[in-house]
Amino acid sequence: MNKKRNLVHPYIPNSVPEIKKQMLEEIGVKDIDTLYEDIPEDLRFTGEMNLPDPLPSEYALERHVSQLLAKNQTCQENLSFLGGDCWQHYVPAICDEINQRAEFLTAYAGEPYEDHGRFQTLFEYASMMGELLDMDVVNVPTYDWGQAASTSIRMAARITKRTEVLVAESISPDRLLIIRNYCKPIIKIELVKYDKKTGKLDIDDLKAKISSNTAGIYFENPSYLGCIEDQGKIISDIAHTHGALSLIGVDPISLGILIPPSNYGADIVCGDIQGLGMHMQYGGSLAGFIATRDEERFVMEYPSRLFGITTTAVEGEHGFGDVTYDRTSFHDRIEGKEFIGTATALWGITAGVYLALVGPQGIQELGKLIMQKSQYAMKKLSEIEGVSIPFFTSSHFKEFVVDFSTSSKMVKEVNKALLEEGIFGGKDISKEFPELGNCAVYCITEIHTKEDIDRLVHAVDECLKKEEPK
Amino acid sequence: MKKVGLIVNPIAGMGGKVGLKGTDGQAILAEAKRMGAEQVSPQRTVKALERLIPLKNAIEIITYPQEMGEEVANQCGFNPKVIGSITQGMTSSDDTKQACKDLLKMKIDLLLFAGGDGTARDIYNSIGNEIVVLGIPTGVKMHSSVFTYNPMRAGDLAMIYLQGKVKELKEAEVMDVDEEAFRNGFVSAKLYGYLRIPFGKRYTQGLKAGSPPTEKYSQEAIAQKIIDDMENDCFYIIGPGTTTRTIMEKLNLDFTLLGVDLLYRKKLIEEDLNEKKLLEHIKGKKAKLVITPIGGQGFLFGRGNQQLSPNVIKEVGKDNIIVIATSHKINSLNGHPFLIDSGNTELDRLLSGYVIVITGYQESVVYRVIS
Amino acid sequence: MSRKNKVRNFHQAKWDEPVIFELSNKGERGILFPEIEKEIEMDIGDGISNLPKNMVREQPPNLPELSQMQVLKHYLRLSQQTLGADLNVDIGQGTCTMKYSPKINEKLATSSKFTELHPSQDETTVQGILEIIYKLDLFLREISGLDKFTFQPSGGSQAIYTIASIIHAHHEASGESEKRDEIITTMFSHPSDSAAPIVKGYKIINIYPNEDGLPAVEALEKAVSNRTAGLLITNPEDTGIFNPKIREFTRIVHEVGGVCGYDQANANGILGITRAKEAGFDLCFFNLHKTFSSPHGCGGPAAGALGVTEEFIKYLPTPLVEFDESKYFFNYDVPRSIGKVRAFYGVVPAILKAYSWIMSLGSKGLKEVSEVAVLNNNYLLKKVLELRGANAPYAEGRHRIEQVRYSWDELYRETGVTTEDITCRMVDFGFHMWSSHHPFIVPQPFTLEPTESYSKAEIDEYIAGLKKVVEEAYENPELVKTAPHRSVVHKINTDSLNDPARWAITWRAYLKKSKK
Predict the structure, then answer these.
(1) What is the pLDDT of residue B215?
(2) Which residue among A308, A460, C283, C492 is the one 20 to 30 A from A294 at the CA level?
(3) Among candidates C151, C153, C126, which has minimal Cα distance to C139?
(4) Predicted structure pTM score
(5) Rounded to an integer, what distance in angstroms lies between the CA atom of residue B354 and that of residue B338?
(6) Is the dihedral of CA C339, C341, C344, C345 positive or negative?
(7) Are residues A349 and A396 in the same domain?
(8) Interface test mutation site (partner A, options B201, B207, B330, max chain A beta carbons within 10 A)
(9) Do A166 and A282 belong together in one domain?
(10) CATH class of the domain whose range is B2-208
(11) CB spacing of B327 vs A334 below 8 angstroms
């Protein structure tokens, strides 16, 4: 661009010199610099930003970025067993079609009239999530599960007017970091142990730690370690006895076959919808949901947008709009609940499309499929010498811990060997959960065939059989 | 059907254009007329009433004859019920008071009145806190905060109140200055009391309407902040105003509606003190002064709280003045700075500049003060 | 036909589309999953029988049942009932920086070479995307003058919360976090500049603007003390007025030991013109979904790219993406890190799109973006001020940067027509017109921001729309007050949305409540 001073860039229509001149005349100034009169000289940046030479031609740009992306190796080209807060599920073509529609992709914050479709799709998303969760209130999605859990905890603290929260230790460590930062320095977080044999919450430890200062107990089902927590009712009852709330994180895709947390005492439920129709996008497509019963004391504590259905001036017309907008910081920056801003609406719309496609039968079949495949993988892996499944006796959904402690290989080494075979092994948690030893979390979904699982089992077996590299 | 009382003080505002400050009293009115003043109050009232036209079939307007309401109501297409009697062209403060008494008996839902501070005072003296009122600003002196910012807003606020969309009421100050002194360039506005008006949060976006944090909630948050921060060995002088009064209510203490009270260790030392008594108590001791802007114009000193004299202010010290106000109150000033007219020019200058105003438990604003 | 000064005879798509549950037919299927392999079934069984009995869902969730094309059609219809930036002259959503989001960037970001990446993959398998993340960091360092960026915050508000967290960590390091409990901001900064620090436990001191629309230096001097934790401020503010004394602001706050955070949500007019560094800020953030063209997606996904000076790198959330001259890698060794604010590395598709956008424009191109955005804005300002009943409070006669907060107060006083009414009427011509968010201190506000993406002809068309509605407000206010007339639906009843007995946030709640 250096040489071609007057390049008219396709993104900037009024970079045409004649038009610029015309507009400047209309404004009554001689040059654009005059319009910056309020920025004093000493604040002006006089240098040149050291950026690469631009690629204004679309072809050159596409070629450049594609070449960069070509350096990546994807889960499509390889066989991946990674899970843990981001999951490879099948994305129906219509999900992509809808979230790439220019109307949805480029809309933002219009009113319930010209953006009626945005309001209706997000209302429908919340409605379908409500069915899945068996709860009557679901928010327009927030950033991710970590934020949803953090806000659930904050809501519990406001509702109970208490400032201590118990969190199950089997939570995702990254999520715990998010929660800790979001609660600091207002809410004290204390961890409740999990039973090292079953992976479930240690009820005795919960009883020892809960008190009349506890705002809520937060646990996840299934947990980060993959175990299904079947003591939900007991935990919720303990919380309620102490005047605390039961806060439960859940994988929504499991709810075709597992009962929703509301049925075992949850007051606030949260989780991530990425699995419901979003490609992984390197972890960039997460979106958190929060759900509660339809009680004023809960609804009034949401910081999120809540879209509701209403009537219009014309009989029979469905209208939509913000429910109790005044809760939000858009309405009042000081009294608003936490804060609200641009979050993840497009993923909410997409998850709605997904749930509409899947339907009641599909979500059940999907859950069953995942259960069967993950159990098969657990069983087969457990048969390998040097491999054990720590919580084998507990039920799992799509993830489970694999322990290589009795083998001669570290998880890292196993994964390296698998990578050479085009397999992304499970997530190494030996640092996150050192007490479990040399472990990884493997994830199986509907995308894995028997062949894929057998291939994994074979590769792991081969790897462990090999001589130590030293 | 909702009943709306309407009282127009037809001569309000006549003094304005001819440089007379108010029209309280027949002699001044005659003077104003001699100087060519024309009635402005009725036209401005029309601006408010027009906004109620959509409710024409849902409300009944009850008013006094001719220029005291009948004419403007008819002009706007209402079919008012007219009561009482007046002498055309010769209405006075007594007519306003009589109209109040008559309307009170009619069990009205809202009293709309058009006038200035003098009119507000007449209304207050006649009905006190018995009915909900709303002032249409048509006068010259406008210190009272019972008036909306302009006549249209009075119409709009009345409309949503009558539709049941505004459920919260607030107490608004009735203030008035001695016109004689005012005309002589000497202002001493006095706080006379409070009338109940609908609380309309300004600029709330109707598309997203609802129930904002109430004025009462804000006042309680501020009061709690003041109480939590109270020091032990320090006197607290609590100036007049509904926001400051909340502190007394929260502490379960007696208080005066209009005066200045003195606290020490969260206990009432004395209520309704004058300048002399205040000075006796605080002389040479640590004292803080909690004040809130008074009236529709945002006076910190010099209107409605004259007990807080230059001597008292000096004794307390600039750094020990705590200003409190709800955000709604500040926004209602439309960006105009707080005003000070303590009676001492030098002190006024000293207090001018910027002040921190506590507006909530966790929130304060920096706001300009001029004299 | 010449479109000069003419508004369209517009009508939005109106499908009268039912709620999806009303379209359900028992037994229909939208998508099928693979059958379970016989061998697995024989080996494992149905996978459910061995679940604890109390965990099995007996009744399937009551989701709607539709065939595939019917789902598609429903959502396509709803898409047509949504007015995206790709369809309208989207200059009416001020502060939102609605600009063109190039389709090539969408194409790149939907490539399976990106979408099928799992965030826990081995670093060697993601060198391409890590390079993009790292290079965008380098680009933004140039644009801001600061020393390191993280892309973890997934929106502007989360970036502000992250800044508040870093400020807290900074004072904690010197044992002053309890004493320093006040954040200073201005009334015309974004509401989140107050709301997010409050979540962190801070008290807020708001500085009111003076008649010139700017916060005064003297007011800031009054606000600072040894309790000051930091300053969070936008510049230009939401009024589009640039605070020329910003360096004095940061100096005063630094002198009392506070940290200065720059909310650069309004950066579209100042790329290559003025930077956070020269203004003396320690921290800043850009919204990639605003200034850097990643699309808004009906309200996200978004990204708040947060930059810091060298001194503050040690507080950033982990991991940082770095380069050792041979490979890109994650650095988790951040000594005083606040931890994490979002899972993984942020909204990576937005990072990719912003990278691609900057690569198309380069240094001169970015400056051209800003200059034309400012040109467009001042042209629009000139035209709006010619409209009856409109004005631009504060800074009369001055030019503005990239947006202006206007007022219809005069029109309101003369006609009784409010901003809300005009918003609803503009819809009838295919336009947005946004009022403003808290604080509502400009009466009857509206905020316009004509970014670089709109042609002069388009700006003229928008003005023609405003002019038409203004004329109607004076001639036939009822027409405006009862709008919209040609949109998807008519004026909604908002009462029930605020009434616990009637609000319905899901279809199931609606069915329960409408039965009563």
Answers:
(1) 76
(2) C492
(3) C151
(4) 0.91
(5) 9
(6) negative
(7) no
(8) B207
(9) yes
(10) alpha beta
(11) yes
What is the rounded distance in angstroms from the CA atom of residue A231 to the CA atom of residue A73?
41
Q: Rounded to a whole number, what is the distance in Å from the CA of A150 to chain C's nearest CA?
A: 10
Contact C359, C176 (CB under 8 A): no
Q: Which residue has the tokens 């709690």?
A: B224
Report the CATH number at residue A420. Answer: 3.90.1150.10
Task: Decide if A7 is inside a domain.
Answer: no
Chain A neighbors of B213, CB-CB under 8 A: 326, 332, 335
Q: What is the mean pLDDT of residues C242-269?
A: 97
Amino acid of residue A349: I
- Whether omega for the bond prior to residue C349 falls within 30 degrees of 0, making it cis, is no
Q: A touches which chains (3+ CB pairs under 8 A)? A: B, C
140-199 in chain A: CB under 8 A from chain C: 140, 143-147, 154, 172, 174-175, 177-178, 180-182, 184-186
ipTM above 0.85, yes or no: yes
Contact check, Cβ <8 Å, A147/C158: yes
Range of the domain at A117: 93-355
Same structural domain, A45 and A174: no
Phi, psi (deg, nearest 5) at residue A101: -60, 130
The answer as to whether A72 is a domain residue is no
Read off the pLDDT of residues A374-384 as tens digits, 9 standing for 90 and up: 999 999 999 99
- State how far the Cα of A110 lies from the Cα of C117, in Å rounded to an integer: 33
Query: Between C413, C420, C439, which is nearest B206 by CB?
Result: C420
- CA nearest B212: which of B278, B176, B167, B182? B167
A289 and A407 belong to one structural domain: no
Each domain of chain C, given as residue ranges in start order, spans: 20-80
Dihedral (C-alpha) A338, A342, A346, A352: value to the nearest 10 degrees? 20
Q: Residues A34, A38, A43, CA angle at the centre, nearest 5°?
A: 105
Residue A265 C-beta-side C-alpha neighbours within 13 Å: 20
How far A460 CA sits from the closest chain C CA (Å)? 17
Is the domain of A117 the same as that of A253? yes
Q: Is the pLDDT of residue C79 over 60?
A: yes
Residues of chain C with C-beta less than 8 angstroms from the C-beta of A113: 424, 427, 484, 487-489, 492
Chain C contact present for A8, CB below 8 A? no
Query: CB-based contact (8 Å) between B36 and chain C?
Result: no
- C47-54: long-range pairs with CB below 8 Å, 24+: C47/A368, C47/A369, C47/A371, C47/A372, C47/A373, C47/A375, C48/A257, C48/A368, C48/A371, C50/A375, C50/A395, C51/A228, C51/A257, C51/A258, C51/A371, C51/A395, C52/A228, C52/A230, C52/A395, C54/A230, C54/A233, C54/A259, C54/A264
Please, how many CA atoms are within 13 Å of residue C404, restricted to the half-sphere of its CB?
Answer: 28
Q: Is C316 on the interface with A (CB under 8 A)?
A: no
pLDDT, one tens digit per residue, over A291-333 is: 999 999 999 999 999 999 999 999 999 999 999 887 876 666 6
Q: Is A43 inside a domain boundary?
A: yes
- Shortest alpha-carbon distance between residue C290 and chain A (Å): 10
Nearest to A69 among C17, C114, C423 (CB): C114
Closest CA to A305 of A453, A76, A126, A102: A126
Domains: count for chain A: 3
C55:A230 CB<8 A: yes
Nearest chain A CA: its distance from B363 CA (Å): 7
